[in-house]
Request: fold
Amino acid sequence: MKLNDLIAPDGVTDPRYLKARQSFWEYCKLRNPKFYKDSRRHLNELATTLQALYEGKLLKADGTPYKKLMINIPPRHGKSYILTMFCEWAFGRNNETRIISVSYNETLASRFAKGVRDDITATKLDPKWTIFSDIFPATKVKYGDASTQIWSLEGQFFSYLAAGFGGTITGVGCSMGIIDDPIKNDMEAFNDRVLDDQWSWYTDTFLSRVEEGGLQIVNMTRWSTKDLCGRLLDSEDAAEWYIFMRPAYDEGTDTMLCAELLSRERYQQICGLTSSAIAAANYQQEPVDIQGRLYTQLSTYDKLPDKFERIISYTDTADTGSDYLCSISAGILDGRAYVLDIVYTDAPMEVTEPLVANQLYSTHVATAHIESNNGGRGFARNVERMLWDKYRTRRTYVAWFSQTANKQARILSNSTFVMANIIYPADWMSRWKDYARAMLTYQASGKNKHDDAADATTGLAEKMQTGNRRARSISKSALGF
Reply:
């Protein structure tokens, strides 16, 4: 395409401006050449990715375009700045663009919105500098629209709304929804209530404002596997997200992402002054709870052995109303446990009792170990009764017992054994999502909201190392696998 073909009705003819209209990266370089330099490769790549998203050219494996982009890069590397530039460029390309941007609080949200609005309304004071109106003179903020948080372009009813996370965004819809750094610090990153509230607001409020076919951009430092990015990647919607992730330091090549913005020396100083977990989250995009998790690697199998020496289960009943019941059945062979089924739920006992009874029956458990603490004995008796009343079988020996050993000490001392000798089916993380999340985020420091999954898994590890009065060989075909 010739440059003459790009001349718009507004009369702009400068080749640099016409090129900036067509290329977001060229727009960035023209607007701020000192910051947007070709040597800063990550900014070039991010700008190219944002433009591809906008134009429907960022494609999934099936050839359909991504509508959702996740950005995870280190602090002070221009991720929020480039998003304000992107908003301007999108408005210049299409005056009918409608944007809702959400930041940690109202102050940051206003700053984001004000940056976009002020650039569009800027007056040229120095002929050496290129301003927005040089490139897109037809795009103007509506006269009298002085608010920094909600404003419109000329000819539009609504163009831009900024809000703090959890704030009010009702009454308008958007063609582009942006969430920018919703977590303030590590205290919030470890606060389950804050993370739960953010997820609820995203699903219940934010999503309802994004119009059909609209774009979503989530820009944040990774903190926790339970943060917004973590939950999105753990959801059924995970494949819809394109992930733009860049760590500050590449160990493989021993290079920094951008030495001009963060030198190796400065990075080492920061790592020396900051805890390793926080530094890894902020600069390497490795969630804090992954850094400190107890179970760093759990084993999996693709197919079961032909026979087991015995099949056992371990059940930790819920101690309080907020706890989870966790029941694991597994086939034992050569000192290893092959997990067959897991029940992990916070449902009441009238629900969990038949679930566990069905688990024991369907996986042919020979001995079921059930903790008798806090109502566990009654639970065990009810499960035993259901096995006979519903399934007419007494092949499972239900053994209840009182667990008196220190829970945290048991979990820590058995963790290496668990990782080496309890083996899960290859799809276990999608089959038992809540259990998998609990195991993969369990912290070695002991600062955990729930320990039921780790406790029951530890119990299974302990029982599989002891003798079994009901040991018997059973084939894989007998289990129906």
